Amino acid sequence: xxxxxxxxxxxxxxxxxxxxxxxxxxxxxxxxxxxxxxxxxxxxxxxxxxxxxxxxxxxxxxxxxxxxxxxxxxxxxxxxxxxxxxxxxxxxxxxxxxxxxxxxxxxxxxxxxxxxxxxxxxxxxxxxxxxxxxxxxxxxxxxxxxxxxxxxxxxxxxxxxxxxxxxxxxxxxxxxxxxxxxxxxxxxxxxxxxxxxxxxxxxxxxxxxxxxxxxxxxxxxxxxxxxxxxxxxxxxxxxxxxxx
Length: 244
Fold this sequence. Notes:
This protein is an alpha+beta fold. It is built from two helices and 13 strands. It has helices at 97-135, 145-150; strands at 2-12, 15-25, 30-33, 40-42, 67-69, 154-157, 162-167, 172-175, 180-185, 192-197, 210-213, 218-224, 227-230. The strands form four sheets. It has a five-stranded antiparallel β-sheet with strand order 6-7-8-9-10, with no helix packed on it. It has a three-stranded antiparallel β-sheet with strand order 4-3-5, with no helix packed on it. A hairpin with a 6-residue loop joins strand 3 (30-33) and strand 4. The longest helix is centred in the middle third of the chain and has 39 residues, at 97-135. The radius of gyration is 57 Å and the shape is rod-shaped. The model is unreliable at 23-28, 77-96 and 129-149 (pLDDT under 50).
């Protein structure tokens, strides 16, 4: 236990009186580890008054060496008062102009990529349609014919007296001088050579493939689905040729 003093001032009228006050500080409570019952207790004065402190559990005499000082409890300060309003950031919640620009550029790039893919697909589809239009609706490549035809780099045409190359783009042979595409239609029994003469066959729209009838010694042209007709005389050209 500690004793201290302090002065206090009482003012009454024009006189000031100083009063000395005694402040008594209570010692911190002490804990002891009892060596007899092995428990941590608060010591109490002995009943006979001969010993300073004894264990309240077993009555054993406690020594100063058994004392365990109690740590003072931290003073709980009163929490400061805070405003419930959230602090206002110095930064704007809206994205910056630079971020918006990057976002727009990314979106534009994605749109350009998609447009490029669509354009490529349309080019492939329309290119295939144009090729089919040039051939008309009759030319249907039989199974295995494409692979077999690709093995022939050129074919000798006795009526022309020259080799005619294979056009892999149109899956047919093509003679530039007579502007004629031709192939062997192996779907027919027996197989039949069919010809497409630009300037004549193209007049029949989706059809126009021609065949040479060796028995009748005349040309036939496809005018519709599964419909063939003799080629009119005014359509026959002097440069027409055929296999015998």
